[in-house]
Amino acid sequence: MTAIGVFVATRWESAAVCQAFAASEMRVVGGIRCAVARQGQVEWWVIPMGVGPERATTTAGRVLGEQSFAAVWSTGFACALGQAVIGEVLIGTHVTMEGGAEDGRSVPCAAAGADWVRQAVQQQRLPVQAGQFVSVPRVLCRAEDKQEIATRAGGVGLDMESAALGFVASERKIPFVIVRTASDLVDESLPLDFNLFLRPSGWVKGVAACLAHPTSLIGLNRLRVQSRIAGTQLTAVFRACADKALREGLA
After folding, report:
1. What does DSSP say about strands 71-80 and 2-8: parallel, antiparallel, or unpaired?
2. Exposed / middle / buried, residue 13 (Cβ in 10 Å: 0-12, 13-18, 19+)
3. Does pTM surpass 0.70?
4. Domains and CATH numbers, the chain
5. pLDDT under 70 in the chain at which residues?
6. Please, what sign has the CA dihedral across residues 84, 85, 90, 95?
7. What pLDDT score does 248 carry?
8. What is the pLDDT of residue 223?
9. Any long-range contacts for 104-107 (C-beta under 8 Å, 24+ apart)?
């Protein structure tokens, strides 16, 4: 049996991945509740790591310390840094950390694994592009900030967890893959400062910000629609990968 560790930040991303499988069971590893779907000779472990690099590092350390995986995948939604459409599949060739204690540190993705995922996606005629990912320690809410990263660093996707997860996987010599779907674009500003919601008391401030700026609800609805599209595409990605693994095996 081959186990793939699929790490996601939020419950919405987790639900989108799990939707690709007929059934899953819950298992606890390293104190983390994971959904495990078995298809053929492959077990897909869907592991909630939380939002941000610190949580990704902590969760990965706990889980990988107790469970062996043939590969570790960073999965979920991302901001598209280049020309893309909402829901487009973004596959990493490598990822670089921008900001924080690990600023400038990079880790490569497993070329064979990334190519295998690309083939699975293309067989289903899903829009896809591959290239560098950039991870940042906080949510970039302004289009100007995202565009600055795109101009300076380039790449196809922006997220918060992939670099941290990749560092842990690399230290343990586990092949690492990034496959995400675009939920927002480089020229779009987010309707709220979502960093508020990452703090213990942030939900109160976040709700207060919504009440103080009712027009933000329009932007939140736009983001909800875009996230739904990204989630549907993420489900399609994992159906494609599971079907390919069942037919041909894993790379």
Report:
1. parallel
2. buried
3. yes
4. 2-187+230-248 (3.40.50.1580)
5. 191-220
6. positive
7. 87
8. 79
9. 105/163, 105/167, 106/163, 107/163, 107/166, 107/167, 107/169, 107/170, 107/176
